[in-house]
Amino acid sequence: MELSFGNGALLLLLVAAVVAMATRRLKLPYSVGLVAAGMALALLPMAPKISFTKEIIFDLLLPPLIFEAAFYLRWDQLRRELPVIFALASAGVVLSGATVAVGMLYLAEMPEAAFAFSKTGLKR
User: Fold this and answer.
1) What is the mean pLDDT of residues 95-114?
2) Closest to 30 in 3D by CA, of 42, 16, 43
């Protein structure tokens, strides 16, 4: 079954309206409902085959999600949790850097990459 542009647009508007009503009733974020509806629609046999490139993800999908998250952000809660966020983010960066360095040193056997930013690696 081939849908014309007008019928496809109406169908998508209908799906978006149903998702909006369902997410409001279930008290879920609208973006979560749209992702779930998109996954369900992708399983249909008449769904178009779309290949996702990094341009589509970074230019079309990610900005509306970030905007909605920032729009509904509770600033008082963010300010209250900011020290914990910074501590966990800093620990995560240090831990991931150490994990990559250990992996480069022992698994990839590339000691020059593991020590690239140490004092001995910066001397020439």
Assistant:
1) 81
2) 16
**Residues 16/24, Cβ–Cβ less than 8 Å:** no
| Residue length of the chain | 124
Alpha-carbon distances, residue 92 vs 43, 62, 66, 77, 86 (angstroms): 36, 23, 21, 21, 10
CA atoms within 13 A on the CB side of 118: 10
Distance CA 14, CA 1 (A): 18
CA–CA gap between residue 47 and residue 42 (Å, rounded): 6
Q: What is the pLDDT of residues 65-93, one digit of tens each?
A: 889 888 888 999 999 999 999 999 999 99
H-type alpha helices, the chain: 5-26, 30-42, 54-56, 62-71, 75-102, 111-114, 119-122
pTM for the whole thing? 0.46
Q: Parse the chain into domains and list their residue ranges.
A: 5-71, 75-122
- The answer to whether 35 and 65 are in contact (CB under 8 A) is no
Tell me what pLDDT residue 83 has. Answer: 96
